[in-house]
Amino acid sequence: MSIIIDGTIATPAALGTARPAPHGRLTFADAFDLGVSFLNGHGLDAPAEVYRRAVQEAHLDIINAYDWPSLEQQGRIHLRQQQTDGTVLYSHDTRLLTLSGATWPAWVSDASVLLNGDICEVAAVVDDVTVLLHQSLNPGADLAAGTSYRLFRRWYPLPVDFVNFTGPMGRNSWAYGQPISLTEMYGYQQNYPFTTGSPQYYAIGERPNQPAEKAIYLWPFPAADEQLDFTYNRRPREPVYSGRDAGDSVGTITVTADSNAVTGSSTAFEADMAGSLILIGRNSTAPPTGRYGLNRYAEQRRIHSVTSVTALALTENVAESRAGVRYIITDPIDVETCAQNAFMRYVEQHLAQSMGLDKGPHGHTGHYVGIAEKALLAAMAASYPHRYDPTQDRIIRRPAWEGPVTWGGD
Amino acid sequence: MAYASNAGMEAKFGPLNIAKWADLDSDADQAKIAARKAAAIAYADAEVDANLHDTHYRKPFVTASGSTPSMIADIANALAGCWLKDARGQSTIEDGQPRDSLTWHRDKAYGDMGKIKTGQIKLDAI
């Protein structure tokens, strides 16, 4: 028996090699098509809302199930040194705090100010030397001119897509600060507001006045301006554009080879389509289908920015010129490739649940739940660079010549 | 968007038939006949939308080029014609069910909608 090890027998030469980039991405439209096929296979159909909900729920199932490496990324926060320059005057009637001998820094809008031992909060910035204090977190009485103060930040906003930390923070030893509860953090900040130095504790909480966004609270307060680097799991892009709505495919587009510009005719591009995918069709009559359809798109590109309702820019140039062709705009399913099958099984599971397909004579069978969970385990096992071992053996990926190392079982 | 149309009904059942069925009082009042046809079209459109609400297609039904899918138009024209004819009375009773010359059209319209609902018939629609 002979073994082909270098592919020289195969022709053409590219046989067996990966298709060159850019690779097609799984889209909301693909998931919608899959859902229709699934229900039609059971002699059913459902309104578009049911498919949309199944896709969005499956998306959450996947991203909540595991720390997918593709969702991990770096973040950075610029920590600010406290400011004590100048003196202040506070008028309780107007709640205005006026600074003399210095100006407020740019970050004053999210700052706290220590006045006579009380931590007060800035509610609004009036000008370079005047701020409005919080309606209740203020000194409660006038403060004479010449009062000393300490301006500092109790919290810093985390990236809007922040979900949780995944790695040690920062580049210095303090970066391994200990996580504590927000209640404990408030206690440290309230009781020891003069303490500065390398932060030893941190807490993650809601960002004030920004629902659904997170902030990090630190103590002690930084002694100097410095950077806080960290890795975190991001929230994936929410699937919104299904490719099925009127605005997703109205009109035609023209693209030119080696250009990233898309010119629309009777199109209705929207600003928040940036980041979505555009599937460029092959003719002027039929909108292209996704990867499972019979009228597969000619090129799939990501939208960089939308200039107007008839103009947008892509992140990459297109390969071929096409004039007056149909298109659809749809969101990518923002899960890594190895999790795509699991995602689709969860779409089916939610559709089955919605349509009563997962019920037996004695109630819920869990048939489709089982299929989806099995696919999820396979995806976790395939996830790169980590290998999740369902048998609880932990396996480290090493160079092939060294072979895998296992422990905790053999 | 109207799926059924006067022209569509007339093409399917004949202009004279449609005019006769729409003349409920048999008084040849053209205004009443026109109103009757409009009511039939509205009924048929609503019947199609109600029966096919639980399908994945965009509502109202539309092709990629923005026109009414031909199958939806055909179903709606059949239902509109049947609605006009129904009001003039049934011809016979068979097995306890009213039967007339349009029974086949009516049955086919509802049968096709049933197949659309189960995915057995795919519409040229987005």
Task: Describe what this molecule looks like in 3D.
Chain A has 410 residues and is an alpha+beta fold. Chain A has helices at 28-40, 48-65, 182-191, 246-249, 340-354, 367-382; strands at residues 72-79, 87-91, 96-100, 112-115, 118-127, 130-133, 143-147, 150-152, 155-157, 162-165, 178-179, 201-206, 214-219, 226-234, 252-255, 261-265, 277-280, 299-308, 311-314, 322-325, 327-330, 359-360, 363-364, 394-396, 405-407. Chain A has 4 domains: 28-68 and 335-407, no CATH class; 71-80 and 155-234, no CATH class; 87-152; 246-330, Elongation Factor Tu (Ef-tu), domain 3 (Beta Barrel), CATH 2.40.30. In chain A, 19% of the residues lie in helices and 29% in strands. In chain A, strand 4 and strand 5 form a beta hairpin. Chain A starts with 27 loop residues before the first helix and ends with a strand. The relative contact order of chain A is 0.15. Mean pLDDT of chain A is 86; it is low at 392-410. Chain B has a two-stranded antiparallel sheet. The model of chain B has no long low-confidence stretch (mean pLDDT 91). Chain B has 5 helices and 2 strands. Chain B has one domain. In chain B, helix 1 (6-13) crosses helix 2, helix 1 (6-13) packs across helix 4 and helix 4 (70-86) crosses helix 5. Classes of the chains: A alpha+beta (410), B mainly alpha (126). The A-B interface holds A 32, 35-36, 39-41, 43-48, 51, 244-246, 249, 285-287, 326 and B 53-58, 64-65, 116-120, 126.
Proportion in helices of chain B = 55-70%
Number of distinct helices of chain A: 6
User: Outline of chain B, from the CA principal axes?
Assistant: globular
Helix-strand sequence of chain B: HHHHEEH
Please give the domain count of chain A.
Answer: 4
Outline the biggest β-sheet of chain A.
7 strands, antiparallel
How many strands of chain B?
Answer: 2
Q: Indicate the multimeric state.
A: heterodimer
What is the overall pLDDT average of chain A? 86
Strand fraction of chain B equals under 5%
Distance between the termini of chain A: 31 Å
Termini Cα gap of chain B: 15 Å
DSSP helical segment count of chain B = 5
Q: In what order do the strands lie side by side in the largest sheet of chain B?
A: 1-2
